Amino acid sequence: MTQRTLTGIIAVVALIAGIAGALYIAPPSGESPAPEYFQAYPQPKPLDDFSLTDADGQPFTRENLTGAWTLVFLGYTYCPDVCPTTMASLNKIWPKLSSIKPGANTQVLFLSVDPKRDTFQRLKSYISFFNKDFIAATGPHAEIFPLVRNMGLMYSLTEDTDKADYLVDHSASVVLISPEAEVLGRFKPIMEPGKLAIIDSEQILADMPKVVITR
């Protein structure tokens, strides 16, 4: 083997390695980057029909979740920590979130799991405090519980509801619903010792375009 041949082989190997390395570091532009924080369900889950009441006292059904990308957070207005913190975080990113894709509508739904205390008047006042564009709804547990389970979340009344200040256990995740009213997955709260478990709103803002662009 001549020196010139050996040099040529080395150059070809280096070129191939360089191309492979570039593809590994930067995938082809035709491929969308995968979400890092969003946890997609194995398959989109169509929402079953439900009947609730919104903060204006009007019927709120599955139809209200069609035609828009919906971020759903469930909680209750008497919640002392996770709920107000999460709603404030969603409000912080709302200006960018509401225009995440040209021609695509986005909405934030606060789903109350405490219908006994959360009248639609109280929901109206609560949600308006964070953002007048946000929507809220509640209803009887017979309607709420199947809907929450359908979304892959949970809640439970662990205290005597005859007490004025009873607490409600509930998921702290934010669920993403497609314009076709399908549950796509959730943004789970960040769990750190000694800290409140809440979602990372900046990660939601970073991942939403990656999810939306694939639909």
Layout: helices, strands, pairs:
Layout: H1 3-25, E1 39-46, E2 51-54, E3 59-61, E4 69-75, H2 82-97, E5 106-112, H3 120-130, E6 135-138, H4 141-150, E7 155-156, E8 169-170, E9 174-177, E10 182-187, H5 201-212
Parallel strand pairs: 4-5, 5-6
Antiparallel strand pairs: 1-10, 2-3, 2-6, 4-9, 7-8, 9-10
Helix pairs in contact: 2-5
What would your notes on this structure say?
This protein is globular. It is α+β, with helices and mostly antiparallel strands and 215 residues long. The protein starts with a helix and ends with a helix. It has helices at residues 3-25, 82-97, 120-130, 141-150, 201-212, and strands at 39-46, 51-54, 59-61, 69-75, 106-112, 135-138, 155-156, 169-170, 174-177, 182-187. Residues 3-30 have low confidence and may be disordered. Strand 9 and strand 10 (182-187) form a beta hairpin.
